Amino acid sequence: NNSGFTLVETLVALAILSVIIGAIYGTFRAGSQSNMLLGENADLHQTGRVLLGRINSELCGIYQAAGSGTSALTGENSDMAESSSSFDRLEFTTISHKPCRSTDILGGVCSVTYSVKSSRDGVPEGLFIKEDFTPGLHLSDDEVENLPETRISGLVVGMDCSYLDPNTGEWVEEWIGKTALPAAVHIKLILKSPRKNASPVEAYLTTNLRPSGSKQSTSGGQDGGR
Question: Least packed by Cβ within 10 Å: which of 44, 116, 149, 153?
Answer without folding.
Answer: 149
